[in-house]
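Two proteins follow. First one:
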Amino acid sequence: MEASKKLDSITAEQVADYLHSHRDFFMLRDDLLLELNLPHQHQQGTASLVEKQVAVLRERNIEMRNRLATLTKNATVNDGYFQHTRDLVIALLECKNLDAIAQCLKQGFIKNFNLSAFSIVIFADTQAHKNTTARVLPLADAESAISGLIHNRQCVCGILRDNENQFLFKDKANKVASAATIVLGGDKKLGMLALGSDDSKHFSSDMDTLFLSFIADVVSKIIEPILLK
C-alpha cells in the first residue's frame, strides 16, 4: 500500500526527467519497451516507441535539410551580390566626374541587380555644377520634397509615398512598387541614392542592406572631393 502511494505521487515530469538522465534505461528492458505503445497518427492500431522516435528524427531531418537548403540559397544570392558589388566599385574608382559616376551606377544597378529604376541626386549648388547631366539641386529644395528620407540615418526600404517616388524616379515612378534609399555622406548629406523595383516585396524593412550601404560609402568618398573643387 505504501509503495502504491509513492508511485501515485510521482509526476509525469519526474519520469521524463529521469528518462532524460538515463537514456539507456530501455536497453536492458526489451520486454518493457515492447509494452510501450503510442497511438498511430495515420491509421488504426499502435506504433512502438522506437517507431515514434524514428518518425520524430525523420521530421527533424527534413527540417534541417530545409534549413540547409535555405542557407545554401542565401549564400548563392549573397555571392552574386558580392561579385556585382565588386565590379561596380572597381568601375566607380575609374570615374572622374559626376556624369561618369551617375552613368556607372545606373548601368551597374539596372543591369546587374535586376531593378526597374535608379536615381542619384547630388545636394549642391546647381550653378557650381551646371556643366553636368547628373541631377544636382540644393539640399533645401530636396528637403521640401523628401525631408523624411534625407534625415533618416539608416537605409530606408519598402513602399515610398507617391510624392517621394515622383521626386526620386520622375518618369519611372509609375514602375516603382518598392524602393531602397540611402543618404550619401551621412551627416554631410552629399546626396541621395535610390533604387526602385516593380515588385512590391523586393525591398522590405527587414532586408539586409550591407551591400547598398557599402556602395553608398564608396560613392560618398568619390563625390566629396569633386563637390569641393
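Second one, unrelated to the first:
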Amino acid sequence: MNIKRYLDFRLLGLTGSGLLILSQFLPWFSNHSLLDIYIISTSVAIEDSFLYLFPLICGIICLVGAIVILYNLDYKINSVIINFIGLGFFLIFIIEIIPRELLYIPYAEIGFYFSVVGSILIFFEILNILITKQE
C-alpha cells in the first residue's frame, strides 16, 4: 500500500516534466513551436529569444527533481527544491512572454496547454511530497 502512494507522486513529476519538454516542440501560436519561435526571434532580438527555451529548461530541471526522488526517497526535500527552481523558470517565462502574446492566447494550440498541465502536475507533485509522512 505504501509503495502505491509513493508511485503516484513519482508519476506526477515524470509526467509533468515530460509534458513540459514535449510542449517545446509542439505548436503554440500560429502553428509555430517554441523552438521555431526561438530560431525566428534569434535573428531579431537575441536578448528576448532565450526566454522561449525556458519551458524546455524547466522540464529538464523538474525531470532531474523527479529522478532524484526515484533514486532515493530520503531526498524528498531536495526534489522539492529542484522542482521549485524549475517552476520558477516557468513562472519567469509566463510573466515575460504571455503579456506579449496576450492577443494570441485565445488561439493557443496544444503546446501551450501541455505546458500548463505539466506545470500543474509538477506543482501537485510538490504538494504531495510535502504532505506525505516519511515512515
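SUMMARY FIELD: The mean pLDDT is 82. The first helix runs from residue 2 to 23.
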